[in-house]
């Protein structure tokens, strides 16, 4: 921290002001996209709602997609911390089923959180019809969290708990995608029982053993 | 057919005209929702594009959601016939894996069909942020086709090919939802190899046997 004190006396205040502005911009961006949708959300609108100048936003980000991407990353980290988890890890207790069930239950909670729901839906809807945006958010937001499942399934494969010929990137979709589809398309209720069942079916299969 | 001949001489012509109008209205509705999205699609716009009076549409349907619902049902039936399938059945050859793979391969073809893609994406996107529309289209369009998998999995359960304690309505999501998510969110390529793999993973599980 010594290098901070070596800056001008006003630096800590400026850093606090910047941090407040950054969080206000995230809040404004998430609220706007939830209320008016992605196409009608503008940098001007975000700036007005956050109470900052448009140039403050352009100094830190080059587009509304960039602002929203970082706002969502921040939201995901907040949610993980609120759930008492490391933002970027799936536990490895040695019990694969239990570890996957725990993470999916936390995801169920997150999907039911109104702070998360409206902006996420607005952005997911835009991604369905706007391939460039869809691919960008998947690459930067969704895929990194799916890779955590890849890591966990690889370590399970190394431990002999998953078959050697299983592709972890496809395997994770057996329990992640059903939950995503129920959330996106209202195809069924989202509960702990449901995600526990998905994990059991995926790990042990539908056919008799 | 005798009762048709007992009608007035102009009845067959009127029926042909009605059928032509109905198909023109479906085409117009699907094209418009693909081009301008669901919120900006109107009965007036559909009528103008189909070359029919607004009252013709209101005589047969009560809302744009109703028109689109039937247009999609018709599109699905056309696609099934083009793929050489009965529109409302999953084959039961006694080989569950082969039957599921065949139907999912046909779905892969349908998802790659540009006639299907743009209007389906526009409607799916609207359903993500418009819960009433989303639930309605799921209930009337998606759920009936999912029930075909329920039927096939039930008969497999009766034949001892699926465990007795498996809930078929959840089980089908292990291979249907990953394909849906890759299509909706651009999370990965959609190929026959991919859907074949999903079926194998779901039926035999990820853990060693």
From TrEMBL, chains A, B:
Pfam families tied to this protein: TetR_C_11 (PF16859), TetR_N (PF00440)
DNA-binding residues (ranges): 42-61
Molecular function as annotated in GO: DNA-binding transcription factor activity; transcription cis-regulatory region binding
HTH tetR-type domain sequence ranges: 19-79
InterPro entries reported in the protein's UniProt record: Homeodomain-like_sf, HTH-type_TetR-like_transc_reg, HTH_TetR, Tet_transcr_reg_TetR-rel_C_sf, TetR_C
PROSITE patterns recorded: HTH_TETR_2
Keyword annotations from UniProtKB, A to Z: DNA-binding, Transcription, Transcription regulation
Protein name: AcrR family transcriptional regulator
Originating organism: Streptomyces griseoloalbus
Source lineage: Bacteria, Bacillati, Actinomycetota, Actinomycetes, Kitasatosporales
């Amino acid at each position: 921290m010594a290098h901070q004190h070596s800056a001008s006396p006003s630096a800590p205040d400026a850093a606090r002001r910047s941090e407040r502005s950054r969080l206000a911009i995230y809040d404004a961006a998430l609220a706007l996209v939830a209320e008016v949708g992605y196409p009608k959300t503008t940098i001007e609108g975000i700036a007005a709602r956050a109470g900052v100048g448009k140039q403050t936003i352009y100094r830190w980000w080059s587009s509304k997609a960039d602002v929203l991407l970082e706002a969502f990353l921040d939201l995901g980290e907040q949610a993980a911390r609120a759930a008492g988890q490391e933002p970027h890890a799936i536990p490895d207790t040695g019990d694969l089923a239990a570890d996957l069930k725990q993470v999916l239950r936390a995801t169920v909670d997150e999907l039911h959180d109104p702070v998360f729901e409206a902006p996420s839906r607005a952005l997911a809807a835009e991604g369905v019809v706007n391939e460039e945006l869809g691919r960008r958010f998947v690459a930067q937001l969704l895929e990194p969290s799916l890779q955590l499942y890849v890591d966990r399934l690889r370590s399970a494969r190394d431990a002999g708990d998953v078959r050697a010929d299983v592709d972890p990137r496809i395997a994770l979709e057996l329990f992640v995608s059903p939950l995503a589809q129920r959330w996106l398309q209202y195809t069924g209720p989202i509960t702990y029982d449901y995600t526990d069942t998905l994990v059991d079916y995926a790990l042990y299969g539908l056919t008799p053993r």
